[in-house]
Amino acid sequence: MIILIAPEKDVENEIEILHQLFEAGLTNYHLRKPFKGYEEHSEYLKAIDKKYHNRIVVHYFHELLNEFNLKGVHLQEQPRVDLKVHLQEYVESFKCKGKSVSSSFHEPEILHNCSVNFDYHLLSPVFSSISKSGYKGKGFDVNHINRTIIGMGGINHSTIERTLELGFKGVGVLGGVWNAENPIESFQKIKNVFEMSVSS
Asked: Which of 141, 158, 142, 163 is nearest to 192 (CA)?
């Protein structure tokens, strides 16, 4: 599984690039725009061809799923913690509609002990971040945790094999695509290496 996270701040020709990425085989796009409000999220989604909406997961404004046929929702760490005893109920409210629910973690043991088993779990930082300076990688080994864990932080085509060796079932990419000179080319390279590593 390859997940592409949206750039926090809009990049030039972003929607156009995104359409090309979907055409190149992107199946999981996490819409994470912390500086956009509900209306801006709505406008962003309206600019994307409807046929790709079922590949998009939203981090903010989960109620967008009432308006758009999206793939699912993502719970960032703090909102997950804040839900406390209501977490299971919240997750089920989306799962019962056939939507995916994922969440972010920064410590393997917290992930391991979480009472809710998400469709997949993002764990970061595996390697030092490409998009955030000073975000040092921790080289987490998750072979002992029997859950679908996606490694994030410093992921590009050259770190994929190591990520899979550490027990991750997939990769989450941000800077490895959006900071590249050619995002489409970079994504295709990541996809090819990932598919080869998984099948070998």
From this structure: 158
